Amino acid sequence: MSNVNVPTIVVHRDPEVLANAVAARIITRLVDVQAAKGSASIVLTGGTIGTATLAAIAATPARDAVDWRRLDIWWGDERFLPDGDKERNETGARQALLDHVDVDPERVHVMRGPDSGMTAEESADAYAAELRRAARPEDHGPVPAFDVMLLGMGPDTHVASLFPGMPALYDTRPVVAVHGSPKPPPTRISLTLPAIQASREVWVVAAGEEKAGAVRMALSDSGPVQVPAAGARGRGRTLFLLDRAAAAKIPPELGRLASP
Length: 260
Hints:
Elements: E1 8-12, H1 15-37, E2 40-44, H2 47-59, E3 71-75, E4 77-79, H3 89-96, H4 120-134, E5 148-151, E6 175-178, E7 188-191, H5 193-197, E8 201-206, H6 212-218, E9 237-243, E10 257-258
Parallel strand pairs: 1-9, 1-10, 2-3, 2-5, 5-8, 8-9
Antiparallel strand pairs: 4-7, 6-7
């Protein structure tokens, strides 16, 4: 992980301000990337704050600055449930944002559920193959160097569907099936840490006092097998985008860039 950087910490007042600020940051990042190289890529996350961020993008007129047809949309993880199930991250993302902007359906890369006829392992392999096809020589690996990877984080420090101590944290494949998840549903598809760390930028977004201990551990010297969020680092930049409650236990020596 010598290519990985020290995270920048940005703190906002409350979850609503956080969601709006992350939405603005996403729009700016995508516009800048598209201006520089024509197209961009983003990895979406589910969860309360992740979905609120997508809704905030949909609600602002600034969303029209993004060329949605030239955006590749991926997911960091997915619950292995049928298409359209309200618990799927994809379903939440479509309702919050994707149904409201002019995306290219061919560039919305979903993780398939059991209604596809695939097992969870086959779905993971299919997603890995899709990532491999999208990777370019300059990405130097089996996944694209995503421009933005959005990750939520659980109170147990899990990111994507990588839970502390589980076998997926040892896996070097880009995508794995996860069985026995401590959070329902038990079967999921997830990117692994090597795929996450291939991203140009990783943004961990967390809100609420129940996340404060996890944030502290994720910014410590903990190993990623026991603290998966400690392995959530990007090639070029890593951001921890937090509300005040989630940032409450960060040691003062780490410092932070506070927003109003």
